[in-house]
Fold:
Amino acid sequence: MKMSALPTKERFNFPTRHPAVPTVDAVMVEERAASFTKRSIKTSAKLSGLKMAVSMCDLTTLEGKDTPGKVAYLCRKALQPIEAKYDVPSCAAVCVYPNMVKYARKFLGENSPVHVASVATGFPSGQFPLPTKLGEVRRAVADGADEIDMVIDRCAFLAGDHAKVFDEIAATKEACGVAHLKVILETGELVTYDNVRLASEIAMHAGADFIKTSTGKVSPAATMPVTLVMLEAIRDHFFATGVRIGMKPAGGIRTSKQALAYLAMVKETLGDDWLNPQMFRFGASTLFNNVLMQIVKNVEGNYQGADYFSLS
Amino acid sequence: MKVSAKRAVVVAATNHVVVPLKDRKLNFGNKWDFAPAPEDSKNYVIAPQHELFIGGEFVAPSSGQYFPSINPATEQTLTTIAAANEADVDTAVKAARKAYDKVWSKMPGLERGKYLYRIARIIQEKARELAVLETMDGGKTIKESRDVDLPLVAAHFFYYAGWADKLKYAFPGKTPSPLGVAGQIIPWNFPLLMAAWKIAPALACGNTVVLKPAETTSLTALRLAQIFQEAELPEGVVNIVTGAGETGAAIVNHPDINKLAFTGSTEVGKKIAQAVAGTKKKLTLELGGKAANILFEDAPLDQAIEGVINGIYFNQGHVCCAGSRLFVQEGIYSKVIKKLRDRIQTLRVGNPLDKNTDIGAINSRPQLEKIRELVQSGVDEGAELTQTQCTLPAKGYWFAPSFLTGVTHAHRVASEEIFGPVLSVMTFRTPEEAFERANNIPYGLSAGVWTDKGSKIFKMVSKLRAGVVWANTYNKFDPTSPFGGYKESGFGREGGLHGLAAYCRLD
Structure:
């Protein structure tokens, strides 16, 4: 008898098209998202927007070649991105692999304004057994992670086993204890806006503190329409439950102009209560120095060369 | 594990704070305000006086009369415009007739096309200037004149330029020939775009033109005349006569006009139809509308809300195809109203030249008064008015984006065209009821259908008596697509092949 690779028993309680999960129309969501890129953000609004963007950055290094030394560069940059005279806030967090958490924590100390975020649960693929994933989370938290960026099980999601996705998020949330949980949907692998909306609903109901677009390892990473779909899910969740969930687009945001367009989208979709690092983050590495360069340009009136901005 | 003081804060945030039901509101405040971002307008000089464009030259009106053109956002006089009387119109028609007989009707289509391409390219080059002028003259936002009007203006000239030498292929088996002199009267809501819709197909087919822009928005048409000069369009092929109703009447009643095209109010359209009756003049009318935007329970709601917003607030609602009647299926009514209420709060009303402005100025004081009067009638008849909380500028003509709930078919606001940023919301229960209610009006220009189900879209489209039906989108325009109405929204089509046919004799 030929064995089917697909699950034979339908065990999910979150059907593919849950009646409470609205559908999304691609044409209009893309049109609406594009409208935010036409906001013209100049002078004082640009400066305050860019500083806000810095305060919302999760400065990130996620490479196999990461070392304690590299993490030290990152932490120092996150604490003080640029000379004090520019009055730029520190980043929200540094985001590292679990093995790097203890070094980041050591460098930043216990009472740092910069949080330590760790990716976990078999980042970036999520193709690992649950006990392994949970062990990883517990270890990262024990090492001092304030925030856990988990990945959802896209295998389960795309195979229709939404309950498994839900259960894993709930279990991860439990393993997090006091740490904040960001749930990465990896929207580049979910592909459709309907999938993004459904995955957002599952994550929020399962206990996410934040929902996050991407690992940065899959293209496309964050896009404005995908982020808009998630912001709308957050808004509807707030109306339904009273709980404010945070949002983190990650990957693909490379320029100050893009970052400001994202902030305009947050401002006009969720309002002022989400315009802070507690509720909105950027997952960023290349974006960061571009933002700093624009801040300096705004203050000094001309652009400085790349060598005037420290590497992280 | 040691928990520091700082991390205790994290703990508090982790245990999700539940906001009580009454406080679950979005706060669209001023935490991060956009600084003013005005489009630079000082490099574009507007002459203090504008003449008529007849026979390829700018000439003074025989009456010597001029009327002021006002920027509706500031109430400042921008310039004065010549008022053409019957004698001027006669001169213009004679110039057009001469150009038709001697030059334009004899010119090979390929050559006519070259002129149209040249005009299209110059429009593209001067797009920013034209957009700024359009915004100052008419009150529409720079965002729309820059991103919608001007690209479409150029696109129309490019599109019809392409047909000029291919008319035989447009109508297989027929021999298309031009009609003669076309009299064209256009409205103030899309001044330059309406000029393009009218002039481009007329010229492509070999006709010559006498065009009258609306008296509140003549500036860009006269700037277009300069572009015709720059393109070396033969003299008299397009003549532009400015003025109010009497100028238009002179065109309509002129015996040597072969074709009339009018876009504007149904009231004036009816008068034109009466005046033309019994003559040999061909006529197309594009008149008022009161479009139904129909929201089904299975619609992609957030996108549908965007469509509703675009449908009614685009160009301050000064759009003949505006989705001014919203029909919501009863099961989602409260959800839709809540979303609409939130969404209109983020609309930015103010200086139309500011690149972040979503809603500009109402075109004229009489229009503003008409909107106010109709909205008041809605309130008097028992509808509930919801408006944005924005502060309106002290000077200029403004109306805050609004919608009326509790509207029934018996309300005036359910059947009369408001032509402003005011939406009338009604409900329905079944698809049959939706198209019955949508069709229960003397107009039939456009409609919108919002549903996730394709079969429902096709069913609705086949039942709706409207010239354009948009599905899961709204206000999409393209030169290749015909546009026009049923019933009192007019007859004839503009755009696409249909638009070409209106300017040809097909033997």
The first helix of chain B runs from residue 5 to 14. Chain B has a mean pLDDT of 95. Residues 467 and 485 of chain B are 5 Å apart (CA to CA).
